[in-house]
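Worked example 2:
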Amino acid sequence: MTGEFALTRVAADVLAHLERHRPVAVRDAEATERELEAALAPVRAAYRESMLPPTYFEALEQELRGSLVSAWRAVAVPFTAGEARGFGRWRDGDLIARLSYVLLGLTLGGLIVWLPFIPIWEKWLPFALGGAGWWLPDAQVAWHRRRYGRELGRILRRFEGGQAALEARVPVSELLPPSSDSVEGR
């Protein structure tokens, strides 16, 4: 098949569409199906326009409906719920929380430098821990988003080896041009 209708490319496009509409699409399975239909509509139209074998697109659509949607919902629903809760950040990372983290970092760093049985004597350590405390809520969010991105990447990697199986479903008779008998009307 052409690269435009390759399994990984179509799966990536559908996944990108689902992500753009994630707040609506994760609500229930019906909303996900509606968004999947909206994502597949332009691909389906382009496929018909290309006059390629319909068997391939049916198999492609079946593969996407079966495994892509369920895999995406398995990671998107908990991520969206965590995102709604602020990923468990204390006080949603407001000014008071950030200042508390800075104070805790300064205190912990001061204790590390002051205690004689810890062999760290760098005077900048409390300030480094205090500065890191300011960015802790942002680091929590970045960590969750990065983990979610890796999960989406794993979903797409599952489809990389499936292209040959999809192409094998298309009979050779559909790939051949129409015979001259059917064109001349004999």
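The two ends are 31 Å apart (CA to CA). The mean pLDDT is 86.
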